[in-house]
């Protein structure tokens, strides 16, 4: 099998890093955990929690695949050389791997490391921080946590030397981290605002209320709309000719006059007809007397 070049190794490492799923980001509160340190022994177990670590200062935790290997030794000794930089910035340094306390203790003693080494033999914390690969392999990484527990920076998949350079640069930056968690008061105010919007959406708008009232008036009113008064052409549609309107008014006046005069004229003619008629069958009393004499 041909040897793999540096570019191929870097590409393979980058591919592995992309598979990681940390779920943590800058501004998040780092979940608490508790691990054994290199000072722990079968008869005297020594543990420390993250809550204890960040109580009075920030922490830098660098993760490495295995103690007492070349790359991991370079990374650990680099943090040893920059120990004063981290301490001056208000941060303590811790190493982290899946090695057992005894292996960690021997390696620390061999290279005179000033900081404790954490032992996550079950890979629980490493997985939580997103620093593991498939098959329980550890990705070289580091995480910077401010005093109180907020994550200031997290780097997954770094080189031994770049890990030291980037971590030291981060702790020198005095810009406080903004929490990614919503503020309780702001969250409550937003919730109330959302409730108010929902209530407003349920209530009819003023235009709708006005429209409903107008429709109700139209449905209850039986009075026809007032007719246009003859001779009054104000407010007429410009498209309607005035001459036609005048003619229409004149015709309406004539029809109204006929309606009034028609019955009176008919009654008058009927009276005249009654006066001109004479009885044809019945004779007058005088004629009856004359007939008797004859």
Describe, in plain words, how this protein is organized in 3D.
The structure is a single chain. The strands form two sheets. The chain has a seven-stranded mixed β-sheet with strand order 2-1-5-4-3-8-9. Strands 6-7 form a two-stranded antiparallel ribbon. Helix content is 48%, strand content 13%. By secondary structure, it is α+β, with helices and mostly antiparallel strands.
Which labels suit this protein?
11 helices; disordered C terminus; 13% strand; 294 residues
Short description:
With 294 residues, this protein is α+β, with helices and mostly antiparallel strands. The protein is built from 11 helices and 9 strands.
Give the topology.
Blueprint: H1 6-18, E1 34-37, E2 47-49, H2 50-53, E3 58-63, H3 70-81, H4 83-88, E4 91-97, H5 101-111, E5 117-119, H6 124-128, E6 132-133, E7 137-138, E8 141-145, E9 151-156, H7 160-172, H8 184-202, H9 206-220, H10 242-276, H11 285-293
Parallel strand pairs: 3-4, 4-5
Antiparallel strand pairs: 1-2, 1-5, 3-8, 6-7, 8-9
Helix pairs in contact: 3-7
């Amino acid at each position: 099998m041909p040897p793999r070049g540096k570019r191929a190794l870097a590409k393979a490492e980058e591919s592995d890093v992309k598979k990681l799923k940390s779920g943590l980001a800058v501004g998040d509160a780092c979940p608490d955990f508790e691990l054994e340190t290199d000072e722990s022994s079968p008869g005297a177990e020594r543990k420390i929690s993250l809550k204890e670590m960040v109580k009075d200062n920030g922490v830098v935790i660098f993760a490495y695949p295995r103690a007492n290997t070349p790359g991991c030794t370079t990374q650990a000794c680099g943090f040893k050389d920059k120990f004063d930089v981290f301490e001056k910035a208000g941060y303590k340094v811790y190493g982290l791997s899946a090695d057992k306390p005894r292996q960690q203790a021997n390696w620390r003693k061999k290279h005179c490391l000033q900081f404790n080494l954490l032992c996550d033999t079950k890979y629980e914390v490493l997985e939580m921080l997103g620093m593991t690969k498939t098959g329980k392999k550890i990705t070289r990484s580091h995480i910077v946590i401010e005093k109180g527990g907020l994550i200031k920076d997290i780097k997954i998949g770094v080189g031994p030397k770049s890990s030291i350079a980037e971590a030291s640069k981060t702790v020198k930056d005095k810009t406080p981290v903004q929490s990614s968690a919503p503020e309780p008061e702001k969250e409550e105010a937003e919730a109330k605002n959302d409730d108010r919007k929902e209530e407003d959406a349920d209530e009819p708008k003023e235009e709708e209320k006005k429209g409903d009232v107008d429709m109700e008036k139209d449905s209850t009113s039986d009075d026809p709309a007032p007719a246009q008064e003859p001779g009054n052409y104000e407010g007429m549609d410009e498209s309607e000719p005035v001459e036609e309107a005048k003619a229409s008014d004149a015709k309406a006046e004539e029809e109204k006059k006929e309606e009034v005069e028609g019955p009176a004229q008919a009654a008058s003619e009927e009276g005249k007809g009654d006066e001109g008629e004479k009885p044809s069958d019945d004779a007058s009393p005088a004629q009856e007397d004359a007939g008797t004499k004859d």
